[in-house]
Amino acid sequence: MKGQGPRPFAHLDSPSAPLYRRVMRAFMDNKRRFVVHLRPEDVVEALRQDGGPPVSAEAIGDALARLAEWGNLRADPDTGRVTTVEDFYRARYLYQLSREGEAAERALEVYEKEIGRRGELQAVALEDLRVRLRSLRELAERSDPDPAIVHSLLLEISGRLDSLAANASAFMGSLQRTIDLQDIDEEAFLAYKDRLITYLERFVSELVVKAHDIAATLRELTDVTALLRLAAEREAADVAPGADDDPSADPAADKLRQWQERWTGLRSWFLGDRAHPSQAALLRQRTRQAILDLLAAVGVLVERRAGRSDRSADFRELARWFAQAPTEEDAHRLWRAAFGLSPARHHTAPSDAESVPAATRWADAPPVEIAPRLRATGHYQRRGRAARVRDRSIEKAYLARQLAAERAQAEAARRRLATGRPVLLSELGALDREEFGLFLRLLGEALSAGPPGADGVIRTQTADGALELVLRPVGGGRTAAIATEDGTMYGPDHELTIINRAAAS
């Protein structure tokens, strides 16, 4: 799948999607704290503290690898903590959010926020808009308004209008679903209907008064270009340069155009004409209509309760129809119409089933032959016995010979190196793969044992205590060359002594 490019939403279709979402949320939370790179152990600690179910480090490692494969994360080699040769050969990565992964997470956050939003009619936002527009009108009358105050007022006006519009849209959508009686609890709806109608009436009264004042203030603000230019220049001073930006482009002009579009949207919200009514007028009209629709929905629920019909009443009415059926054929037709039962003769009928009408009774129809095994077991064919257990003795013997050969090679390499006598690295001679692998492991044990003593000598033992190592520098700037089947390894020359303690004991 490498040629398909990033697939940042692929983890949502995975059975482990909850784990992937927790991992991505951990990266988003750390990025908000300006932490860019995370190691796997950092993710383990973050998931341990997020209150979710415990997850093993192996599962988190697999999740990080999969997310990096899909393009949600970027994996960079972690070479900052390499202290041994084994650490160098072990895969270690630092993970950070990719641009695609961050964009996908932000989209999911917006989606979840919008799904859970209830919406509200913000009468307080109308008052805030009215007060701030009056302050902006006073600044427009001055010859040298403060750019910081102008910018702050314009930001507050734009933010409050966006919040008012988004919440009103969400609330009217949920209100329409309530009016349509979709996914609601009838008891709860009847209990809070009076409070909902009072809420709508209060907002309509606030909207009529304050929208009129806001519209009057906007008509007085005939020319706000100078104020918008002050805000645009203040924002343009903080625009970060980009590698692909046009040197001749003017950031202040772009910001000014954006502010002009916002101001046009503000005016269209409260100022309109007969051909194009304002958004405030449309919202007022829709809210008033919603009150009437709510009263109609309440009437529908009351009528439904007055003539309520349950299953027992339906069966009693059906029994009355059966009793009133003129003939037996009419009763059969009523039965088929009520319960939808139809002959299923076409499933197992003989080849001449076409000559038998569908209305023929089973007692009058030709017999249908059914295999005895089908009647007894539900299957046409007899199940065979279980497959015999396969003899794996040959494969086991082959694996045993392979293990013995590998063990013999390892013992030969140990006898070659663990002589108990000091030897210079430059005098080891050529080593095969098994001997070179053992040499690297022992050299890693010696180098990771810690700082050498006062005489520069390193003394340590292997983890199982079988081998004792003594590594002593020889000085003089000599270089050792160790020939192997895959190449030659060069390094500073040392005197190495390997003692096989297991053989000595």
What does this entry look like structurally?
The protein contains 17 helices and 8 strands. By secondary structure, it is of the alpha+beta class. It has 3 domains: 2-115, Arc Repressor Mutant, subunit A (Orthogonal Bundle); 117-238 and 252-304, Methane Monooxygenase Hydroxylase, Chain G, domain 1, CATH 1.20.58; 417-504, no CATH class. The strands form 3 sheets. Strands 3-8-5-4 form a 4-stranded antiparallel β-sheet. The chain has a two-stranded antiparallel ribbon with strand order 1-2. Strands 6-7 form a two-stranded antiparallel ribbon. Helix 2 packs across helix 3 (57-70) and helix 9 (225-236) packs across helix 10 (251-270). The chain is flat and about 105 Å long.
Count of the separate structural domains: 3
Shape: flat
Number of helices: 17
| Estimated radius of gyration | 41 Å
Helix content range of the residues, please?
55-70%
Compute the separation of the termini in Å: 56 Å
Total beta-strand segments: 8
CATH class of the largest domain: Mainly Alpha
Could you state the order of secondary-structure elements as H and E?
HHHEHEHHHHHHHHHHHEHEEEEEH
CATH architecture of the largest domain: Up-down Bundle
Q: Main sheet, how many strands, which sense, barrel?
A: 4 strands, antiparallel
Provide the spatial order of strands within the biggest beta sheet: 3-8-5-4
Average predicted local confidence, pLDDT: 79
The percent range for strand residues is 5-15%
Low-confidence stretches: none
Overall SS class: alpha+beta
**Any idea of the CATH topology of the largest domain?**
Methane Monooxygenase Hydroxylase, Chain G, domain 1
Protein name: TIGR02677 family protein
Organism: Thermomonospora curvata (strain ATCC 19995 / DSM 43183 / JCM 3096 / KCTC 9072 / NBRC 15933 / NCIMB 10081 / Henssen B9)
